[in-house]
Design a protein that fits this description.
The complex is a heterodimer of chains A (211) and B (271). Chain A is built from 6 helices and 14 strands. Chain A has 211 residues and is an alpha/beta fold. Chain A has a single domain, classed as Class I glutamine amidotransferase (GATase) domain (Rossmann fold). In chain A, the strands form 3 sheets. In chain A, strands 2-1-3-4-14-13-12-9 form an 8-stranded mixed sheet. Chain A has a 4-stranded mixed sheet with strand order 6-5-7-11. Chain A is globular, with a radius of gyration of 16 Å. Chain B is an alpha/beta fold. The longest helix of chain B is centred in the middle third of the chain and has 11 residues. In chain B, helix 10 packs across helix 12. Classes of the chains: A alpha/beta (211), B alpha/beta (271). At the A-B interface, helix 1, strand 7, strand 8, strand 10 and strand 12 of A face helix 1 and helix 7 of B.
Chain lengths: 211, 271
């Protein structure tokens, strides 16, 4: 069974609707037992990083998620769920993450003066990805498959091989997706990115991950 | 932070500084079970049912949808969430809900119904701390400050509340700065003077608001032709536009609008 992790910090309804649309059976749960037995884990999250991590701790989900990651259970982190896969975040201070993918969640670069391609922060809108051709889930995202973003921080994975996609923000290539073994994280919202986003969800559900 | 250092080497994307696409947002003003449309936020007439209308806009490639409960402030309760929940079943673009968002519990209920963001006007003016509180709990990305602007003098606008029914003496340009400092993630600026008139946008208003804040600004009120939108993007620097009449009355369908904007060298999402 696919399990959508409920720790009080996600847009569970939208993700559930997207999975239902894809005919993917799923269960929404915040119970450690369900994390343990899940075939695949979808790990959403909105709001601030520190608050989200606190939500995981309060529900005693940190160890079950780490154990699932180590067992090879495919995990898809979305938005703050993606950020939580990394080691730490600089949002409102310094916060530890799950540390499953080495890296830091850092603020997006600010607009440059007189840049006609300037992006205001928060970065809100549909953006084109540059994908890593070796990333099993993201590599099939096409040039016209724009994804919807709404964020001020991004998952800066330390290892280039873990970076699955970048977008161009104010003159920089900013990592917005990570893939490492059975772990996938996307900063954008596949459940809110129309047919292109649904394709990413389907691809995650169908991918057999090497562990 | 050094983005280049963490993201630079292995992933070589071609260095193109392509302008990102603008957001074309459909605004659905809801009264009871219907989508309605007025002029200056008054004189309402029924356009149709929210379900089929939203579905059509989604299929035509709308980038976001804003649902505005036009009478929530009057009756003190929010009837719009059932409408949003139905939409969220098969519409996979961001949904914003406004009208009657008064406290954190209202935001929780909106998000549970499938909304991604909430638009707050009346409650934020009555209690500005509500913006700080909402941003802290739900994140700035969730909080859209909705401003209904009525011009009082050249370069001066008053913020109205209760869907344009009540005066406040709050200056729009001061208010958007304060709201940004308090943690709003976006500003939805509606010109009450232009709203529903099809006369085009209040460009002075858009420019003034955009110059005051660093967060994204969504312009609304008066668009009736692709040219109006092109002007707001090119001349005012906006990258998000919310339209009601334009789509409702087929003044320009979304595909036709996108084609016209692309022809005017404005980046739009290809669908």
């Amino acid at each position: 069974m696919n399990v959508v992790v409920d720790y009080g910090r996600g847009n569970l309804f939208s993700i559930g609707q997207a999975l239902a649309h894809l005919d993917a059976p799923y269960k929404t749960s915040g119970a450690p037992d369900d994390i343990e037995t899940a075939e695949r884990i979808i790990f959403p999250g909105v709001g601030a990083f520190g608050e989200a991590m606190k939500g995981l701790r309060d529900r005693r989900l940190v160890e079950p998620l780490k154990a699932a990651a180590a067992r090879g259970t495919p995990i898809l982190g979305i938005c703050v769920g993606c950020q939580l896969l990394l080691s730490r975040s600089e949002e409102f201070g310094d916060h530890d993450g799950l540390d499953l993918v080495p890296g830091t969640v850092s603020r997006l670069p600010s607009p440059r003066p007189d840049d006609r391609a300037a992006i205001r922060i928060p970065n809100v809108g549909w953006r084109k990805l540059s994908v890593n051709p070796d990333a099993p889930v993201l590599r099939n995202v096409g040039n016209d498959d724009l994804m919807y973003f709404v964020h001020s921080y991004a998952p800066m994975a330390h290892n280039q091989t873990d970076v699955a996609a970048t977008i161009r923000v104010n003159g920089h290539d900013v990592p917005v997706a990570v893939e490492s073994r059975n772990l996938v994280g996307v900063q954008f919202h596949p459940e809110k990115s129309g047919p292109a986003g649904l394709k990413v969800l389907r691809r995650f559900l169908e991918t057999k991950f090497a562990n | 932070m050094n983005v280049a250092a963490t993201a630079g080497s292995a992933l070589q994307s071609t260095p193109n500084e392509a302008v990102p696409p603008i957001r074309l947002i459909s605004r659905l003003d809801i009264k009871g079970p219907n989508v309605i449309k007025g002029i200056h936020l008054e004189g309402l007439r029924v356009v149709g049912q929210p379900g089929p209308i939203a579905r059509r806009y989604y299929e035509e490639g709308v980038d976001e949808i804003i649902y505005m409960d036009t009478v929530a402030s009057l009756y003190g309760r929010n009837n719009i969430l059932g409408v949003v929940e139905e939409a969220a079943r098969d519409i996979f673009v961001p949904l914003t809900v406004g009208g009657g968002i008064r406290q954190s519990d209202d935001i929780v209920a909106a998000l549970r119904s499938g909304a991604d963001k909430v638009a707050i006007n009346t409650a934020a003016i009555a209690r500005p701390d509500f913006i700080d509180e909402a941003a802290r709990i739900f994140g700035s990305q969730c909080i859209v400050l909705s401003v209904e602007a009525k011009q009082r003098a050249p370069g001066q606008w008053e913020a109205l509340t209760d869907n344009g029914r009540e005066r406040t003496d709050v200056d729009v340009l001061d208010w958007v700065v304060e709201a940004e400092q308090r943690g709003a993630g976006e500003i939805l600026i509606t010109s009450v003077d232009r709203e529903g008139t099809r006369k085009g946008f209040d460009h002075d208003l858009f420019r003034a608001v955009r110059a005051r804040v660093e967060i994204p600004v969504i312009g609304c009120g008066g668009a009736a032709a692709p040219d109006h939108i092109a002007a707001a993007v090119r001349d005012d620097g906006l990258d998000a536009i919310a339209c009601a009449s334009l789509f409702h009355y087929d003044l320009s369908s979304l595909p036709a609008l996108r084609a016209a904007l692309a022809g005017a060298d404005i980046a739009v999402r290809s669908v």
